[in-house]
Amino acid sequence: MKKLLIATRNKGKFPEIVSELKELPFEFLNLNDISDLPKDFEVEETAMTFEGNAIIKAIMLGKKAGIMTLADDSGLEVDALDGRPGVFSARYAPGSDSDRYYKLFAELKEVPGDERGAQFQCVMAIYNPENDKVRTCNSIYRGKISTEPRGENGFGYDPIFYNEALGKTNAEMNLGEKNRVSHRGKALRLAKEIIKKDFL
């Protein structure tokens, strides 16, 4: 069976991705499954766009592992902060996920509820080292920044990203609900079609 490397070590992200792609004829691996990759190996995300970073990760890891690789770069863009944290979402503050979202809360302290619009953006890149083929797709998921964290599921900024239609944060959703509406879920459905068309 062909292998597909999902370029993450994130314990929350890997099952989210596999649940969308599971009908494809692949054995799914994550970075922890690649034995000759040092445990602390990180791809430097040097691009200033999500697409640039996703392509860098997919190509570098695909070449290192020698197998087809899917990488994503995603981030939170807050309207009142001119799109910050954007590509710096994962490193917006040192420490944990909650350190990062409490920094956001502090920056949005004076911003009223109806001006707390935000979006997640996700770009997926698929790379096949056998023929050097790379394809990308992207999607956007609109919502609002809550005034306090809510929910125990998910990871990253999920506890503070509020979906008005569902009346809950990402972290209050189960995996099925989140994948139906989220930026990553939408991008994965596009990626699945690209893989079927261009990589199988």
TrEMBL record:
<feature type="binding site">
    <location>
        <begin position="8"/>
        <end position="13"/>
    </location>
    <ligand>
        <name>substrate</name>
    </ligand>
</feature>
<dbReference type="InterPro" id="IPR029001">
    <property type="entry name" value="ITPase-like_fam"/>
</dbReference>
<protein>
    <recommendedName>
        <fullName>dITP/XTP pyrophosphatase</fullName>
        <ecNumber>3.6.1.66</ecNumber>
    </recommendedName>
</protein>
<dbReference type="GO" id="GO:0009117">
    <property type="term" value="P:nucleotide metabolic process"/>
</dbReference>
<dbReference type="InterPro" id="IPR020922">
    <property type="entry name" value="dITP/XTP_pyrophosphatase"/>
</dbReference>
<dbReference type="GO" id="GO:0035870">
    <property type="term" value="F:dITP diphosphatase activity"/>
</dbReference>
<comment type="function">
    <text>Pyrophosphatase that catalyzes the hydrolysis of nucleoside triphosphates to their monophosphate derivatives, with a high preference for the non-canonical purine nucleotides XTP (xanthosine triphosphate), dITP (deoxyinosine triphosphate) and ITP. Seems to function as a house-cleaning enzyme that removes non-canonical purine nucleotides from the nucleotide pool, thus preventing their incorporation into DNA/RNA and avoiding chromosomal lesions.</text>
</comment>
<dbReference type="GO" id="GO:0036220">
    <property type="term" value="F:ITP diphosphatase activity"/>
</dbReference>
<feature type="binding site">
    <location>
        <begin position="183"/>
        <end position="184"/>
    </location>
    <ligand>
        <name>substrate</name>
    </ligand>
</feature>
<feature type="binding site">
    <location>
        <position position="73"/>
    </location>
    <ligand>
        <name>Mg(2+)</name>
    </ligand>
</feature>
<comment type="subunit">
    <text>Homodimer.</text>
</comment>
<dbReference type="GO" id="GO:0046872">
    <property type="term" value="F:metal ion binding"/>
</dbReference>
<dbReference type="GO" id="GO:0017111">
    <property type="term" value="F:ribonucleoside triphosphate phosphatase activity"/>
</dbReference>
<comment type="similarity">
    <text>Belongs to the HAM1 NTPase family.</text>
</comment>
<dbReference type="GO" id="GO:0009146">
    <property type="term" value="P:purine nucleoside triphosphate catabolic process"/>
</dbReference>
<dbReference type="GO" id="GO:0036222">
    <property type="term" value="F:XTP diphosphatase activity"/>
</dbReference>
<keyword id="KW-0479">Metal-binding</keyword>
<feature type="binding site">
    <location>
        <begin position="155"/>
        <end position="158"/>
    </location>
    <ligand>
        <name>substrate</name>
    </ligand>
</feature>
<dbReference type="Pfam" id="PF01725">
    <property type="entry name" value="Ham1p_like"/>
</dbReference>
<keyword id="KW-0546">Nucleotide metabolism</keyword>
<feature type="active site" description="Proton acceptor">
    <location>
        <position position="73"/>
    </location>
</feature>
<feature type="binding site">
    <location>
        <position position="44"/>
    </location>
    <ligand>
        <name>Mg(2+)</name>
    </ligand>
</feature>
<dbReference type="GO" id="GO:0005829">
    <property type="term" value="C:cytosol"/>
</dbReference>
<dbReference type="GO" id="GO:0000166">
    <property type="term" value="F:nucleotide binding"/>
</dbReference>
<dbReference type="InterPro" id="IPR002637">
    <property type="entry name" value="RdgB/HAM1"/>
</dbReference>
<feature type="binding site">
    <location>
        <position position="178"/>
    </location>
    <ligand>
        <name>substrate</name>
    </ligand>
</feature>
<keyword id="KW-0378">Hydrolase</keyword>
<feature type="binding site">
    <location>
        <position position="74"/>
    </location>
    <ligand>
        <name>substrate</name>
    </ligand>
</feature>
<keyword id="KW-0460">Magnesium</keyword>
<keyword id="KW-0547">Nucleotide-binding</keyword>
